[in-house]
Every structure is written in C-alpha cells, then in structure tokens.
Amino acid sequence: MNLSKLNVKLRIAVVQLNPQIGCLDETISRAKHLISIIKPHPPDIVVFPEFALSGYSFHSSKHIEPYLYQVTEGPAYELSRHISKQLKCYTIMGYPEKVVSPNDRSINDKCFNSAIVVDSSGEIAFNYRKSFLYHTDENWQCLENPAGFQTFELPFKKKGRDLQTGEMHDVKLKTSIGICMDLSPYKFEAPFHDMEFSSFQVENDSELIVCPMAWLHSSSVTNQDEDSKQKKERLTKALKEQGLPSCGSQGKYQIDIEGADTATEIPACKPLESEQDHRLQMRDTNYEELDQPDVSNVNYWLLRFLPFLACKLRKSWFSERLLVPVIQKFKSGRTSYLGASTDKSWLFEKKEAILVLANRCGVEDGITAFAGSSGIYKFNGKYGDQEESLDLSNKSVSLLGNLSKGYEGVLVRNVDFQVRRPKPQFMK
C-alpha cells in the first residue's frame, strides 16, 4: 500500500494531584486552579491520574460506595466536561465507575477502575476499564475489563502535515489507555518478560498511549513487606523532617509549561542526565528530594515498554529463529515477544509513538506513598542494531519532560511525531 508520512504536532498537558479520600471539593478546587494556569496555553489533550479526584486507597465496597458513579455522572465526568469545553480539548481522567443493571435493581452494581475520555464538545469519546487489578482494587470487588486491552481512534482536526506536499490534514490517532497495574505482569504472577500491555500496543500499532496511574513509591508499606513497622516509621520520619503532614504536600505546585515563563513555587525538574540519574536513583528508596522525579520508577516504567525500545539482541533472535517456539507458547493470539516477531526483528522499527504517564503524588493512610514523576515520552523506532541499555539512556526514547515525585503540578509539552496513512485517504 502506498503510504504518506504525516507529521503530527500536539500540545499535551499532564496534571499531577494528591487527592485524599473525603476531600473531593478541595481536590477539584486545586485541579481547577492548575487548569486556569494552562488556559493561556490551551492543550489538545489534558491527562489526569488514576482515581484523580476521589483518592485511591479504599478498603471495602462500603468504603468506596459514595464515590462510585456511572460514566455520564459524577465529579470526574462533570470536571472533564468543564475542562474539555473550556479549553476545546480532550480530557482523560481516572475515576471509580459503577454499572447499574437497568432492568433489575436487585442485581448488584458492577464496579470498575476506569478512565473517561471527553471530547471538546463535552461528549464521551471513550471509557476504558482497567484490565489488570492491583490488590487495592480487589478490596472493593472491582472487576477486570471483560474486553481486555483496547485501542480506539482520537480525531484531531488539521494536526497532520503531509511531509511530501506540506498540506494539513485531519488525522485519527490510534490510541490506547492503560491504568497503572495494566503495565505490570498479570497479578504479579505472569512471566516478567511477557510484557502483556506494551506487546499489545506494538502489535496493534498504537500511536498515542495514555496511562493514568496511582503508582507507589518504594517507601510505601505494602502487604508484601516483612518490615512494615520499620517502613512506616521511616516514612513518618521523612514527612516530619520535610515539614509535611501525613498526607504529603498539597497546594504547593510545580508548573512546567513549554514556551511559557510561569512563576512556580517548585522549580521545574532539570533534564535527567546519567550522573544525576544515578545519584537520584540511589535515594529513591526514601521519601525525600520530593522536588525531583523518582528515577527508579521512571526507568522501571520504560523497561515495561521494552517492545518499543531499541535492543540489538533482537536481530540474533530473529536470524537464528529462536522466536518461533517462544511465540507458539502464547495462548492469547500474541504474535510477538519483546517487540520481535517471526516476520520482523523489531515490529516498532521506523515508527514513532507518544507515551503519557500521569501519576498521582502524596501519601494515604500514613503508609501508602505515591511516586508522582508524571511524564511525556517519545519513542523514535531507531537504533535497533545498536542499543543495549534498557533505561532512559536508550537513544530510542526521549523524555520530553516530567514532574517531581512529591508535589502537585502541571506539565505541558509540544510533541512532534510521525505517523503513516494511506495516500487515498487525503485525496480531495
């Protein structure tokens, strides 16, 4: 098929919040304040974290019940509509969803961990439900997405420039959403190298991947910890030493808007370099240096997108036909392994894609610390025969900007990437 290359330019905003259960109005107020700051620089997409307004650590069905809403009702829907109509953009926001049986009220509501997509007219463009559940989701009888991972099209008017003719075209981007645990091995039991979510994206040619998250910082106390008492004491001490309440920082913002000189209480994160990267990663086990990103988690997230990263080992797997028996073992129709297939050594080669990670920050229950560090990344599909590193130093990925681990704020970046489309699609 004869394809045209389109250069797509978008402006993407990521809002990082520290929502606390029972403090809905306060969280909405801070969210609106951050949106007011970016209003002079309107984005094409605004992305919020998982459970962006409600808080995350619910312990039972009864605990979460007041915060469950159907897709076209509730605070997340109303705020998303407000933002989308005000800024003429898409808004993507995580929220607790309930599905009510229309014919039989005796049937219990189904509950999901969901992300709503609202278009510029305030209409629902898509509603994604989390596929892989964390144990906190299971506490309140959350259900897995019966459809599994999904893709959908997001249309943008006059955002694609034909590299041959220079003409501007409407473009529909193949988009996918993953919510936090979706990036991890299923139930933490599947083989680490299965890379279920990112393999799905590569095999389905996703161009825009958006991940609302409530990802934990390593200082969090979890039900797997044997030293839970000591970890809680260390976290409490870290918060006290930084003059913070038990919930962490709220209302002190880090503002990083490309192309704008905006006053901010917390300076923007400096571009990560190898020496700084190593220094910060050594300290990521403690809840400190909250104005810096959680580099350990940033590198882990990228590792979970290994199918998009250049890796020269793939060529030997391909040439020696080592992949055939590996891929044949998959039972879900998978056609690739770590980005390689039996037909091509790297499925993502010479392609480009944008990844948006919107993570929350703060602390809940005095024991659950979140990693923040929301960021925007670009995969370039190059250097497949050169790269060995599988972290931020890999030349096939660029970190376009990120926020800190501990402060609320907003990040805005102009992204520029190429997609391919059939030529007849653009004939007048």
TrEMBL record:
<feature type="domain" description="CN hydrolase">
    <location>
        <begin position="10"/>
        <end position="417"/>
    </location>
</feature>
<dbReference type="GO" id="GO:0070773">
    <property type="term" value="F:protein-N-terminal glutamine amidohydrolase activity"/>
</dbReference>
<dbReference type="GO" id="GO:0008418">
    <property type="term" value="F:protein-N-terminal asparagine amidohydrolase activity"/>
</dbReference>
<dbReference type="InterPro" id="IPR039703">
    <property type="entry name" value="Nta1"/>
</dbReference>
<dbReference type="InterPro" id="IPR036526">
    <property type="entry name" value="C-N_Hydrolase_sf"/>
</dbReference>
<dbReference type="InterPro" id="IPR003010">
    <property type="entry name" value="C-N_Hydrolase"/>
</dbReference>
<dbReference type="GO" id="GO:0030163">
    <property type="term" value="P:protein catabolic process"/>
</dbReference>
<protein>
    <submittedName>
        <fullName>LAMI_0G03246g1_1</fullName>
    </submittedName>
</protein>
<dbReference type="Pfam" id="PF00795">
    <property type="entry name" value="CN_hydrolase"/>
</dbReference>
